[in-house]
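Course exercise 7: structure representation. Students receive a sequence record and must write out the corresponding structure in token form. The form below is the worked example handed out in class, using AzlD domain-containing protein (111 residues). Read each field label carefully; the graders check that inputs and outputs are placed in the correct fields and that the protein name is recorded exactly as given.

STUDENT ID: A-19
EXERCISE PROTEIN: AzlD domain-containing protein
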Amino acid sequence: MSDAWWWTYLVIALAGWLATDIWRWLGVLAGNTLDEDSEGLQWVRAVATALVMAVTAKLVVFPTGTIADAPLWLRAGSVALGFVAFLLAGQRVIVCVVVAISTLLAGLLLL
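STUDENT ANSWER:
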């Protein structure tokens, strides 16, 4: 065994950092020059929102793990109640998440 066993881990960490962090910094630099109301940022927000909603829909319709034990009506109802809470709370995401998860957990405990 080599004395430089850590070399492989250093290369993996460095390559992982370079692959992601450079793009983050470039995003920060480019983001500082963009107007918040520009079409480009509106498009980025729309795509990000669509991706989050697609993942949420996938978790509701095709769940894995413990959530798969919950019936579809409970999963969909939890999302619906979370959305209503989101609207009533002045579009606060944390309220939506807490209400949806609480509803789902309560439903699983009662079933």
